[in-house]
Amino acid sequence: MRLTTLQPPEPGTALEVAPGVRWARMPIPTPLGHVNLWLLADGPEWTAVDTGIATPAAKEAWERLLEGHPLKRLIATHFHPDHLGLAGWLEEKAGVPLWITFGEYATAQLFFHGIAGFAPEATQAFFRSHGLEEARIQSQALASNLYRLGAPTLPHTFRPIRDGESLSIGGQAWQVICGHGHSPDHASLYCAEAGVLISGDMLLPRISTNVSAFAAIPDNDPLGLFLDSLGRLEVLPAETLVLPSHGVPFRGLHARIAQLRAHHASRCAALQQACVGASLSAAELIPVVFERPITDPFQTLFAMGECIAHLAYLEYRGLLRREVDGELIRFRAV
User: Which of 286, 268, 261, 270 is nearest to 208 (CA)?
Assistant: First the structure.
């Protein structure tokens, strides 16, 4: 895998990475520090891919960006606030319609309104059942609707995009490739003519994509879905220029996919070994999945979701069995 030598653009500016494709970067208030956005030449206007989180800094960067990039439409790869958070603001300010998969739009609305299993209380109960101690459950990260903080408004209408659909943007065909596991129906965009893949969060150069279990679908297999989805990207040419949502553009997607498969296989093997002769909860197993200490409450949210997803993957394949004692769920190697 080879990272490009391009230096990331400053907020409010855009850098050309391929003919008609520009890279913009927005600050986000998380340890990642940024999210990448992509601008595709579309006649005299531009199609934007993703938005950033709704913060004053991101709005200021967009104000400057819009001066040279009048928008025709907005495509969101998925529902997470760093990708959709400013969609409502951009619709009002620039008059651009939102294009997104139905599953991602619906999930955004469910989290925004805190409906049923998508409410903060449901996540608290879900993590409690997997052994997380009460003090951490009551943290702001789990007790409040964080989604609304990052996405305070959502467009009331949208244009659905579908897996396999070809979008004509600036005279080029961009194929929608849907992936699952990180989010319900994440849309990556591939242009064969340009040799470019806008991978969103499905393929990142330095960090592994967060794959978490949701309280609303506790018996799902998100890691299995994610690994299967990587196979859909694996068929693309090896020299495809990959434009990720975090980090810098890179080439060598086959090598990166192999690294990600090896990473998850290693974490699964470690979890299975830890559960030999012992019955352990997801909260107890966080140190097995994450070698660094997890103390920040926001990171705990992701760590618990990811640990449960790996345990579910092993359970689905008959390598772990679930043991329920009252309301507490533990896992033991078969």
Answer: 261
